Amino acid sequence: MAAVCGAAKCVFGLLLIIAASTTAQSNKTLLRLQFGPQDTTIIVGQAKNVTLRLHGPLSEPVTVNFTQTNATNANAYVQVTPSTIAFTPPPSNFIDRSERVSLRGLRAGIFDLLAHLSPSSALVDQSQAFVRVTVAKSWSLISVSSVIGWTYFLAWTWSFWPQIWENRTRASVVGLSFDYLALNLLGHTMYAAFNCALFWNGSVQAEYLRRNPRGLIPVLANDVAFSLHAVFATGLIIVQCFFYERGQQKVSYTARAIMTVFALVVMISGVLVATGTYLWLDFFYNLSYIKLAVTLVKYVPQAVLNYRRKSTIGWSIGNVLLDFTGGSFSMLQMLVNGYNYDDWDSIFGDGAKFGLGLFSVLFDVLFIVQHYILYRNSNYIELRGENYPGPGSVTTAPRQNIST
């Protein structure tokens, strides 16, 4: 046994030596052209420096020049200084040289600055020979956008808790649509799975970057935190439904049919992954599409329930106000960024996020009108206990402040 272990260690060590020598040889024979950093922000009228590095074997003089995506020579985003850089091979024919490149903002926009080696060679690695540049009109607007972003993130994150607190205070979930809860849990679960995969899974990230060679992973840590918190909070509300008075309400057959369709989409996507037709990135994209579809329909059951009961008791207005704040500030941030970066395509070229924010805000406006205008008198009567749907009489009916 000891001999076998010793032989295994020798083989493993030999493999490591071979891998190291192969890597070293590969690094020595491949000429690399790379920028650092690969993501930078510049203000119009101001300049910022990036570093261009040429590393590897070089046997003849070469020149590097630059191009800006989505720009013409007469309408460039930045002024690049120097416009070209010449590299001369050292006596050893192995170069490791870095040059500072100054970028002065000319007009707002988002683009890639690309470096090109001339004459080019098949042995040149240019996978990092770009820098994603964001040219903004003002640092102040960047700060405003950041404050707006944190505001809508916190508003959406805390929007679950007024409903949780109201359920606990009333010891009842009467008036809260079970269809809304079921669809909401499904949507947030799909969104959390998509965010976690794109944030943590290396193979999914690699596939995304392969399809978007100069792209950045679109999922950030706050996206993961929000979606996981949303699943937890919605699940907690559903748990409350098992312990608190809930009347005769159940998840409707319509909602069950919709969720069955979405479950079939997940199942079919899984089969396509298993058969090699789909990659995992496609699978998780389908989950995100389910989230979008759920967001479009999840508010309808609650609005209909309020209409049928002629009351909003049980549906927390705090939830609505925070959701309205989150949706409004989300759209406001998109508008501020669109102006600051002159990037209106991010809104109108792909209007899914803006459209969903607008859709949720419109429903929130409907809920606010139902609560404060249409059913205000009904809410007052119900809160006095004269038409309270839960157990108990006037003396045992929980009170709620309808002004908040």
Short descriptors:
single chain, 404 residues, Immunoglobulin-like, 55% helix, disordered N terminus, disordered C terminus, transmembrane helix
Structure description:
A five-stranded mixed sheet has the order 5-7-3-1-9. It has a five-stranded mixed sheet with strand order 2-10-8-4-6. The N and C termini lie far apart (75 Å). It has helices at 2-29, 139-158, 161-170, 178-200, 202-211, 221-243, 253-274, 280-297, 299-309, 317-340, 345-348, 352-374, 376-383; strands at 31-36, 39-43, 47-57, 62-68, 78-81, 84-87, 94-105, 109-118, 124-128, 130-136. Helix 3 (161-170) runs parallel beside helix 6. It is elongated. Helices cover 55% and strands 18% of the residues. The chain is of the alpha+beta class. It has two domains: 31-136, Sandwich (Immunoglobulin-like), CATH 2.60.40; 139-373, no CATH class.
Quote the distance from N terminus to C terminus: 75 Å
Number-wise, the strands total 10
Strand order of the largest sheet: 5-7-3-1-9
What is the oligomeric state here?
single chain
Q: Low-confidence parts lasting 5 or more residues at pLDDT below 50? A: 1-28, 388-404
**Backbone CA Rg:** 29 Å
